[in-house]
TrEMBL record, chains A, B:
SUPFAM superfamilies: UDP-Glycosyltransferase/glycogen phosphorylase. Keywords: Transferase. InterPro entries: Glyco_trans_1, Glyco_trans_4-like_N. It comes from the Bacteria. The lineage of its organism: Bacteria, Bacillati, Cyanobacteriota, Cyanophyceae, Oscillatoriophycideae. This is Glycosyltransferase family 4 protein.
Length: 357, 357
């Protein structure tokens, strides 16, 4: 199958550090190539891929100080995709609402994976294009009142082999936090849990400009370089090290997380997860087996001793069976076939209508 | 002719206060209707127009606190224009670079008026679509290295009758400044000129969020409620009052102004203009007759006594002959005919090419 994957330009594929969407797009793209598909990846020029790379920006916009209006490049990339639409059997957009109006102009079957959440503004444009083909990354992510034409839920998959299993963490035990240092991800809750339990906490993740004030006020004052530590943005190796050697990973979110890649990354290394009961969390964690789904910070503090007793191999096996790249790509291939079949049916219907008229 | 006018959604048409683009779109649209054209105006739902109003947002985005992602609405409007493209003989975009990729999908002849300046980012997307039909609002606004297909320069026009001539200002004499309180418009220079000459200065215009720090540091400390006064955003009546009763209007810009509507508004009421020699300024002011084109603040201070001697009726007549709505709409009608003729030629060439092949 000739497939186009369209990634956001903000971060490269795969991302050097944090960047959930681009990581998933990278795994999906490379595995599709390994399975014999003819894949073109639309992404920033510094991306690394087994597919053919088509790029209108030499490097990730986030890292290019000359870029002030990223929207310009999003439009240029979408335009390029449309120009080449006839070269593909299917186009898979990962770029959010901006792709919606363009998708109307292409005759090629199209699917959109919605990686984020809906905002009060974006709801309106999604609703206007509700008949296009959408894929959710968890059931919890769907907002049913929008009436979107969801053709599948495909849980994100990860490269299991890149997250070696740690049967027993070798360092002094600590709690881990990984993710943007933003209110939604709850790093302030992680600090509260560490302080209430006396555990050491190691945190890593990027700080977006919009979150600088939050970081200065809620996080930075607690960084003592001893009990509470911030490691900055991590490489993949540092991430695996951080998660695999943790006793427990904290996922104390305050928003409806659409998926939460960090949870499976942690479980894959063997480390159980204490997570807040919001969004996709109950779909991703096997409560009482690979972690605990809690309703507030106090419950998380209370569950910590039980989490320490969980079997690390069980955490690992659970991810292998449910969240591998192979399973994700199986699911996406099915979704692509569904979108193509529906498109042929629709065109068939139009033709017969024309014959009757 | 069936014409679509596409305005930005940020401000309504016409704007209640400041808003150069929306003011020009309003005059152009209404005059085209008066001349018998069938005109549809795509703009915010609170716009007032003689044309048919087509709107995807109930009110100007700037005034709607629920709007966090204005880009969503820009895309929704462009999508609506494309859906209706076949209803028009010509589509006239005033919405900047976002319209460019959409214009490629429409078969209807299209013109873009570029109202603003090029940025390092937007240059790239304009260049990618350089063969579309562009209209500049001054010769100075063109950046020739981009190689854009400019089909005309059309100076902005204004409704002369809405700016009554003041043969003699009746109040205590003062200098006027009208425009965004941003570094580009030079309100800090206006204050410097007032302080150096001892003249009273009355300033009006909006303060954008991005300019708040500039306002707090460079403007607010000088507002003494006596010599230096800031009137906030003005209604049309207040604007006419402010300009018409001024001895001289200051236009001490620090950027390459693409047009500078305030200069003609002022001259129309009879008030000459002292302006900085940047961008369109020498095209808009008749040096030594309707104002003075200066190269720095000191030259403006020096020219002030000479500006006070200029004939107010000459200022008025100059605007009537060069910057009326009628003259602007004459020019746009010619540009539309040119775009339509070129489009027919192009399609004609394609057809004969096909016949030969």
């Amino acid at each position: 199958m000739r497939i186009a994957q369209v990634a956001p330009l903000w971060e490269r594929v795969p991302p050097p550090g944090y960047g959930g969407i681009e990581l998933v797009v990278g795994h999906l793209t490379d595995e599709l190539v390994r399975r014999g598909h003819d894949v073109t990846l639309f992404a920033s020029g510094d991306s690394q891929t087994l597919a053919q790379l088509e790029s209108i920006a030499p490097r990730a916009l986030r890292l290019d100080p000359s870029v002030k209006e990223p929207g310009v490049y999003d439009l240029m990339q979408l335009q390029r995709v449309c120009q080449r639409a006839q070269d593909f059997d299917l186009i898979h957009f990962h770029t959010g609402f901006t792709a919606l109006p363009f998708a109307d102009f292409a005759k090629t079957p199209i699917v959109h994976t919605i990686h984020g959440i809906f905002t009060a503004d974006s709801r309106k444009i999604y609703q206007q294009h509700r008949d296009q083909n959408f894929i959710s990354i968890s059931d919890a992510q769907r907002e049913t009142d929008l009436g979107l034409n969801y053709i599948s839920t495909v849980y994100n998959g990860m490269a299991i082999e890149e997250y070696p299993f740690k049967a027993k963490p070798h360092n002094a035990p600590y709690l881990a936090f990984l993710g943007r240092l933003s209110p939604e991800k709850g790093p302030h809750h992680a600090i509260a849990i560490a302080k209430k339990t006396g555990w050491k906490l190691k945190m890593a993740g990027k700080i977006d400009r919009v979150d600088l004030e939050f970081y200065e006020q809620e996080i930075k004052p607690h960084l003592d370089g001893d009990q509470i530590e911030y490691l900055g943005e991590t490489t993949h190796e540092q991430k695996v090290e951080l998660l695999g050697n943790a006793a427990v990973t904290l996922f104390p979110i305050t928003w409806r997380e659409p998926f939460g890649l960090v949870m499976i990354e942690s479980m894959c290394t063997g480390t159980p997860v204490l997570a807040m009961n919001l969004g996709s969390v109950p779909e991703v964690i096997a409560h009482g087996k690979t972690g605990f789904v809690c309703n507030n910070v106090d419950e998380m503090v209370e569950a910590l001793p039980k989490a320490l007793q969980l079997d690390r191999q069980t955490c690992r096996d659970y991810v292998v069976s449910r969240f591998s790249v192979n399973r994700m790509v199986d699911d996406y291939e099915l979704a692509y076939q569904k979108a193509i079949a529906e498109s042929m049916n629709r065109n068939g219907r139009v033709s017969s209508g024309q014959l009757v008229a």
